[in-house]
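Researcher: I'm preparing a figure for a lab meeting and need a structural model of a single chain. I don't have an experimental structure, so a prediction will have to do for now. The sequence is pasted below. Please return the structure as tokens so I can convert it later.
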Amino acid sequence: MKVSDFDYHLPKELIAKFPAEPRDSARLMVLHRDTGEIEHRIFRDIVDYLVPGDVLVLNDTKVIPARLLGRLSTGAKVELLLLRQVEPDLWEVMAKPAKKLKTGKELVFEGGLRGTVEGYAGEGRRLVRFRVPEGVSFMELLEQVGHVPLPPYIEREERPEDRKLYQTVFASRPGAVAAPTAGLHFTEELLERLRDKGIIIKTVTLHVGPGTFKPVKVEEVEKHQMDYEVYSVPQETALEVNRAKQEGRRIVAVGTTVVRTLESAAGEDGTVKAGEGSTNLFIYPGYRFKVVDALVTNFHLPRSTLIMLVSAFAGREKVLNAYREAVKEGYRFYSYGDAMFIV
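Model: Understood. Here is the structure written out token by token.
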């Protein structure tokens, strides 16, 4: 299977720079995967497509202000993106420009935050040990001096409102460096309407890392390797999902991160196990889904692992046809864009 099989043309002007306001006023494309039929709705209309007893699963990860702007002792500017906490004060980071960040280099940031490069962690990545002033924790200081890690394709500087907008209303567990964007469309009012209708809402956690968006650099899909990401499935979520599967009720995943979490936590019989783990599950056409019955997702980058996952769920031709229709109808794409519901 070739990566080029998942390519499509997207006019640059359709890449959303700001989210819809209010959140649930974004457009919603409904794709029926059995027939390929497409409907055009507004996101809050998703209530019409869910029935009492459906289990809607959300990713409650919270985006941290993972972008740090600092300087070397020479005065040269550096930019870090926090990727993974290795020890309490040691982080794996994506560094720019990486070639200047040699082992032993000292880094200075706002608020008295300092760092020392302790080693290499792969292409463009470094291990940095941070030091903070007495009386403040690293995470407290990060909230003050860190920046929202907006995806580069948004092509604008962060604004104060992005702190709220690039976060789901149900975010509660800090650790992500990118938002689970399908969840950005939900408002508290919409979630309440869903509960009133008898929809059961549960959560999992997968701290979204840059590996989710890592470009596929091989020609053959099967040769791509995903990075590991940490996930957690609460006991009550596992119990409800398993009960629903036994009773023939639908599991509706909000976002590809929820799909990967549930499918990673499931045994071959589809039974989801509670607990914590890490996953590098790569889902592409040919994958047999064990848990998820319906999917809420955004429109994804061409040739990405995300569009491959969606194609595995709904069929490559149907997905690419839906994307062509979205372009024709002027849908907004990517993190701050519109949504698709595959039923």
